[in-house]
Specification:
- By secondary structure, the protein is mainly beta.
- Helices cover 3% and strands 39% of the residues.
- It contains one helix and 29 strands.
- Strands 3-4-5-6 form a four-stranded antiparallel β-sheet, with no helix packed on it.
- It is flat and about 105 Å long.
- The chain starts with 5 loop residues before the first helix and ends with a strand.
Length: 426
């Protein structure tokens, strides 16, 4: 018969019965339980299940380094979620589960995941048009049963649901142009019983999600370019008589009105509603002065030409934006320029001789993208615009964070588009 040493016999028994074996203390004197066979008795071992004969314990807590779940902090410290991982090094606080099945460093309970699978079919729900109103996010989605409809969520599963099946059955109302104004969500939706694409509003309830007005009884008015204004919305619509013209709605049928038949024979193509000092500026083409800058206070009588930038032709204002209490836009008076305006002819002047491709404003700077693929900056407090950088291709400006512009561009021929950030210096 083969003779086993006491250590081998103990190890075998431990693996089968998962119990400790008798060992001895470091001096080899008194026998004791030593489950990990590291010659340290379990009752004094700071890692009784992991062999660590040196008993190293850098942070001085009750757990040795070999089994310390929270190195550098007290393993016996507060553990709010009860997952045996102290708050000081819990990677998923608030959840009693610190498992990490994919080994990416983020526990399973805290892995990014959909709040809710809205569509049980293999296709996705295609959530779009996210808009926040009073802490609730509204969006369009398709649950596979009702078509694309209006939904809302408060960020929880129970708080995520369809607001209303506007076009009943599996047909879709395709809510779009979601715009929060005051306590109301305005949007465009399609319903065959209401004649087509029209203006709707919602207070977040099924009963409060209703058609505002059937602007074009014989077809679709196709509300577009919705912008919040005075608790209602400015928008472009076609009533079937005047073609596409500017409208305003306060959320009632009676208060949904045409602001003017600016171009009598065809659409005036109003665009770029931009609010400044209680009024809204936009671009439109009338019968006499071509495409210029207009202004409205939300009434027909208060809708007029604001500035005729180029009396000899169409200035074609574009890229309207408000920044620092002024209106900025690109336009031509025979030469393409960047302009600023306080909304009056006397307060409108050119800033920079460039053809504008895009504008964004930071905290203190205006960023200007040009058709020549150059980036300029100008202090919102006034002063000269200065070149910041030249690109092979500058696609346009997307956002600004603080005093940095975010955009896509190609620096050198042969390169691909990259995401760029600039504070206006080289």
């Amino acid at each position: 018969m083969r003779k086993f040493s006491r250590a081998l016999w103990c190890g075998a028994l431990l693996s089968v019965l998962a119990v400790g074996c008798k060992g001895s203390d470091r001096n080899g004197d008194d026998p004791c339980l030593d489950a990990d066979s590291d010659a340290v008795c379990d009752d004094t071992d700071n890692c009784p299940a992991v062999a660590n004969p040196d008993q190293e314990n850098e942070d001085g807590d009750s757990a040795g380094d070999a089994c310390d779940v929270c190195p550098g902090a007290d393993d016996d410290g507060p553990d709010a979620d009860g997952d045996s991982v102290p708050d000081a090094c819990d990677r998923c606080e608030g959840f009693p589960d610190d498992e990490d099945s994919d080994g990416d460093g983020t526990p399973d309970a805290c892995e990014p995941r959909p709040a809710l699978d809205l569509n049980d079919a293999p296709t996705d729900s295609r959530p779009r048009e996210m808009t926040i109103l009073d802490g609730i996010m509204y969006f369009q989605a398709d649950d596979g049963l009702h078509g694309v409809e209006l939904w809302l969520t408060d960020g929880t599963v129970d708080g995520t649901y369809m607001v209303k099946d506007i076009e009943p059955g599996d047909n879709a109302s395709f809510p779009s142009e979601l715009t929060a104004s005051g306590a109301t969500l305005f949007f465009r939706a399609r319903a065959r019983d209401d004649g087509g694409d029209e203006l709707y509003k919602s207070d977040g309830t099924e009963a409060g999600t209703v058609l505002v007005k059937d602007i074009n009884p014989d077809g679709s008015s196709n509300p577009d370019d919705l912008v919040a204004y005075n608790g209602g919305v400015l928008f472009v619509a076609n009533d079937g008589i005047t073609d596409e013209e500017p409208w305003f709605s306060d959320g009632t049928e009676a208060g949904t009105v045409l602001l003017g038949d600016i171009r009598t024979d065809e659409t005036s193509a109003p665009r770029n509603f931009t609010v400044l000092d209680g009024k809204a500026y936009f671009v439109a083409h009338d019968d006499t002065i071509d495409r210029e800058l207009w202004v409205t206070d939300g009434t027909a009588s208060g809708t007029n030409v604001a500035v005729d930038v180029w009396t000899a032709g169409s200035s074609g204002p574009d890229f309207l934006m408000e920044a620092g209490g002024l209106l900025y836009f690109g336009a031509t008076d025979g030469t393409e320029r960047l302009w600023q305006s306080d909304g009056t002819a006397g307060g409108t002047s050119s800033v920079l001789d460039v053809e504008v491709r895009g504008l964004v404003a930071g905290d203190t700077k205006l960023f200007i993208a040009t058709r020549d693929d150059e980036l300029y900056t100008r202090p919102l407090s006034g002063g000269a615009a200065t070149p910041a950088f030249s690109f092979n291709v500058l696609a346009g400006l997307e956002y600004a964070f603080g005093d940095r512009a975010i955009f896509t561009a190609i620096e050198n021929p042969g390169d691909g588009f990259g995401l760029w950030a600039s504070d206006g210096t080289t």
